[in-house]
Amino acid sequence: MKIDANKETLKKLQSELNDYKAQVGHLPETMQILYDNLKIVKSFENKADIVKFQIYNVLSFLSDIDIVEIKDISHLHFDLGLSNGEKWILKRKFNKILENLDSKNFVTEEECSKLKYVSECIKLVNSKL
């Protein structure tokens, strides 16, 4: 299963980042973000945790809103500024999440066009696992 392989890869990368941090004394901002994300991913217990984190990352990227400001109750349009026209991107991003988690199912553009809240995004992707 890819999750186990990813955990090993993350452990190795975290070790390398720890070595780098010890040698340099601090991490550049982008490396710090990666390091912080690795700490979060390391704490995941199940696929649902991974899905939520990845959806938050996708929405943070698309909306240009910091991931810590996104909540399950955030409205995709009013809180995150996503237009109906931008929702087609969610299909591709959500299907990539499903593919990485070895799901044979996928989301459709029609399903994504009906999404209004972050919690609905999470529920949709989890329903396809």
Q: Using only CA atoms, what is the Rg?
A: 16 Å
Large-scale geometry: globular
Strand content: under 5%
Strand elements, count: 0
CATH architecture of the largest domain: Orthogonal Bundle
Task: Look at the helices and sheets and give the structural class.
Answer: mainly alpha
| Number of helical segments with 4 or more residues | 6
Share of residues in helices: 55-70%
Brief account:
By secondary structure, the chain is mainly alpha-helical. The chain is 64% helix and 0% strand. Helix 1 (2-24) crosses helix 2 and helix 3 crosses helix 6 (118-127).
Mind explaining what this structure looks like?
The chain is mainly alpha-helical. It has two domains: about 1-45; about 45-129, ACP-like (Non-ribosomal Peptide Synthetase Peptidyl Carrier Protein, Chain A). The chain is about 65% helix and about 0% strand. Helix 3 packs across helix 6. The longest helix is centred in the N-terminal third of the chain and has 23 residues, at about 1-25. The protein is globular.
Write the layout of secondary structure elements.
Layout: H1 2-24, H2 29-42, H3 47-63, H4 87-100, H5 109-113, H6 118-127
Helix pairs in contact: 1-2, 3-4, 3-6
Tags for this entry?
Non-ribosomal Peptide Synthetase Peptidyl Carrier Protein, Chain A; about 130 residues; mainly alpha
